[in-house]
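Quick entry, no commentary yet.
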Amino acid sequence: MRRFLRGALGSAGGGCVLRWLGVKVCRRSVLVVVLVWLVSWLFLNSLVFVHRNMFSDFCTDDKSKQILQRVCNDYHQGVLTGDLCEDLCVSGQVEYKRCLYYENGKKVMAANWRGVPVVLKSKLENFSSYEALALLDYQDAAGGAGGEEELSPLDVIFYATLEIKNSLGLETGTNLTLPRLWGQRLKEKERTYSRAELASLWALLQQEEYTFLRVLQDLTHHVAKILGSCGHFYAVEFLAAGHAWDQHIFSLEELSLNPSPSPWSRRERRLTARDMVPRVALSFLEMVEHFENDFAHRLHLCDIKPENFAIRKDLTVVAIDVDMAFFEPKMRDILEQNCSSDNDCNFFDCVSKCDKIKNRCGSNRKNSNLQVICEKIFRSWFSPTLLGEKAGFPLQVELQRAVQECGEMDSGEDTGRRRAVRQQLRGLLMELILEDAGSQEVQERKRHVHTALNF
């Protein structure tokens, strides 16, 4: 009997233990399942996040063609227009070549327009992503349902001018040349503008780079030229950009230049890459002077690197990416920020000083366009490595010293010294060009004499 009771109790106790262990095991299993699900959820969401933020802007030909097809669909529906649209969407005279890059929503593609290489650009992918022109909504409300009253050219001039000045950071009363020129062109057309034309113009004006290039191309030849547009996309002349890995920065060997015939030969003299460097450097100096002196306000370049410049076949330096270019009023607003040290006052290549008492960055730029160009471009061009056997020649040594002084120059220094450094650079570059030309003339003469003796 006792054995039976102990067996029964033992069996009952063992069952309880098993049930308790079972509950514990079940809880652990549920916890493991929950943790696995949570980790999987986090992993999948991370993949989606990475895909949206990194691979959504992955440059592909298929996606680029789809984007342009949507532009053409909007054109056929009368939503947008432009002088490029007919060739892009109807006659097929715009031939898509390849996708160049996508960056932060910006789409850049290479194409041929009637046989001429161009670059198609837009800050945003879709036309609908741009802010609509409020005047169009007002026009619809004022005209009632189906109202087709159109805006006058003066209305277009007024609002386009305001948008340009706001985009560039200029005061409304600033005497800017281009809006008056642009306005005159609009007046000469002597007609009103359709909704598609106004909407397309408004989308273009919301793109800072388009506005800059459109404003500056009539005032200087040192920016890429806008050739046409369709809706929110605009075509810019195709120019090969510089590369940091190229010792000459630009692919100078690919340029076929015949500046002048040699007096000692019937053949025209072709410049070598080494001959081109001082000529391109002179064009950089000219560009700097244009940007500092020839506009209502000084123009600051805050992202100076080879990729943001190109050269035409005549060796003119061209700014092809001006997303980080600002006129003086906007530059002051950008620089004047809270700070605890000078490092807080560095806005890419535009630098100011921190006032430790006010904990505020100064509104005046400490360095200059020329100083950064000397440091980032001229220093490598005129280094002993690139100059080779000529590095020890007096003219080259003096040029290296001038570049060194230019790279260390503070924009706060007196105007006279800055002008003297710039003039010294220009004079030395001119001497270098004349010296190279003279040596080539001597070589041509020797070759001419040699061939004459061996008739």
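second:
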Amino acid sequence: MRHRSRAAEALAAVLLLALSAACGSRLPESDFDHDDGTPVPGDAVPLRVGIITSATSPVGGSAFTGPRDGARAFFDRLNAHGGIDGRRVEVRSCDDGGSGVGNNECVHQLVEEDQVVALVATTALDYAGASRVSRAGVPDIGGQPIGPAYDTYPHLYGIYGSLAPRDGTPGWDGKLYGGTEVYRYFKREHGARTAAVVSYNQSASAAYARLVERGLRAEGYQVVTEQVDFALPNFRAVAADLKEQGADLVFDAIDGHGNARLCQAMDEAGAEVTAKVTNVQNWTSTVAEDYKDAPRCRNALWATGASRNFEDTGNAAVAEFREATKDLETHSQWQLEGWAAARWFTDAAKSCASTGITRACVDAFMNRSQGYTAGGLLLPVRFERLPEPPKSSRTCLSVARWQDGKGWVGQGDMNRTCFTVPQLAYEP
């Protein structure tokens, strides 16, 4: 068994908000979409589920919609094949506008007014309503741990699991823990020894960069730190120094636009690296366009995560996902994880069909979800309540690299790319 603590993804998502603040914001807006889905035979009362997404936010319109789109695709396909025990799944989706106020409005509408049996694939920039969801005993299944909520409250089940007590305080005494498996992988599998960390001179960016630096140093790397001005970043100077320092790897604490500019500068300077490492949030099919001006750096992009590569269509579960989402303009790892979250709810609901599909029954199934994989789409997920944080953990890793003409190419078996690594504390 393994526990996946996705510190990088959680902090990277929060970082996006901090780095986009200068672009302005909007008033909170809740958009309640009553999606009846495809009818199924019979007059059975539909099962109502809710999806909360920061579809409109300061970060941008498409930054957080992947899990929602993947979950909807699963439920559409499920309804077309008869639903759950003859009952259609009715999806009620809500856009919280990326704000705490909007999030509380969504929670009120879905949990208290619409009386959904569960929330699925929550992707909220500010999950301010998490405590209300927990108090209501509503299982929140397969949400993205952008903040600490999934390591704080009972009845919330993040897509990567949790070992924390979840007693109302984040993690253990306010501290969360993340492993060094990504750094171990590149050290052991690719002989990397020197790693650069690029950040802005901005508090959230600098804090995330420090966490990455700690992990790299714990794995014995020589670390090169590069910081640029948020308003007027000089990526050419960074690229020149990366070349001079002979960096094997580049990690970053900057936004997507900044990453594209950094890659372009690296190409222009002739700074070639073993890997320009990104996370699951940027594991998308839009790489060719996003990095169109940086072909060498683009083909050095690697992504790591805890779910099976969405390009691995040789796998039956991935092929099913891709067939159901073939009409989407783009594909992403977050879409696949939203699909997995919807499948998780469905498995829970099916287990309750004979006794009644209630919040309590679905929640009981989730509490027993040790080693759940969504048919092989996820690394085995655990939920425990350890009184003390683990000092180390055996952690597995899904790895892919971008190659022009092929897309994201998986690197090895994610269930066998495993390392026993230290767990480092950080404050959310």
